[in-house]
């Protein structure tokens, strides 16, 4: 054996636990280093039977994300809307975000249409007035279109009150929630009633 191999052997044995090394000696296991090769081969003899050991590469493991593991196991995402009972607080929170998104899209659509459209917004409004619809139909349309604005305004003010650490009790949550729904509906109906009744002259 070369000098480097001797150093390697003693360094290897020095790091073995004392109990493990004693077991190796009791079982008459000999570690042999083969000259002329870079790899280490271990030969063991135990009770007149030989066991040949060799170094094998570990199988490649493909990393998986948390979402991929859940999909393979068939786990549902959490939180999942289908396993929770609808509540006033959660439904109002979701509706607040949906109305905010709708108002944002409408604002961008009107602005971009006015900027790059072939006609002015007044032209589109005049075309809408020519549709075969009576005053009550227009009232219903304007009420539906006005509800996202009224709800987002009232519910947003309600959340601003929550930011001041007020009305944080469960009963207060529900009381302010029902009040916000009623006030939003009244405001939406008021917006719809801007349309004059049938037979009256449009301003």
TrEMBL record:
Keywords: Heme, Iron, Membrane, Metal-binding, Transmembrane, Transmembrane helix
GO biological process: mitochondrial electron transport, succinate to ubiquinone; tricarboxylic acid cycle
SUPFAM superfamilies: Fumarate reductase respiratory complex transmembrane subunits
Transmembrane in keyword set: yes
Pfam families listed in its UniProt record: Sdh_cyt
Subcellular location: Membrane
Transmembrane regions: 94-116, 136-161, 173-195
Name of the protein described by the UniProt record: Uncharacterized protein
């Amino acid at each position: 054996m070369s000098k480097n191999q001797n150093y390697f052997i003693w360094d290897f044995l020095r790091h073995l636990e004392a109990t493990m090394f004693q077991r190796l000696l009791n079982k008459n296991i000999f570690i042999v280093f083969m000259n002329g090769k870079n790899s280490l081969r271990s030969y063991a003899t135990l009770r007149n039977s030989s066991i040949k050991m060799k170094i094998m590469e570990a199988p490649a493991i493909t990393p998986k994300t948390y979402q991929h593991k859940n999909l393979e196991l068939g786990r549902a995402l959490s939180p999942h809307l289908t396993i929770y009972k609808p509540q006033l607080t959660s439904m109002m929170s979701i509706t607040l975000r949906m109305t905010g998104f709708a108002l944002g899209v409408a604002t961008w659509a009107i602005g971009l249409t006015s900027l790059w459209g072939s006609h002015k917004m007044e032209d589109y409004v005049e075309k809408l007035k020519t549709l075969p619809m009576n005053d009550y139909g227009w009232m219903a349309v304007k009420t539906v279109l006005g509800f996202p604005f009224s709800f987002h305004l009232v519910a947003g003010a309600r959340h601003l009150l929550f930011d001041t650490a007020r009305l944080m009790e469960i009963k207060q949550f529900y009381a302010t929630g029902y009040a916000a729904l009623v006030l939003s509906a009244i405001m939406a109906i008021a917006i719809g009633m801007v349309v004059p009744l049938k037979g009256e002259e449009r301003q």
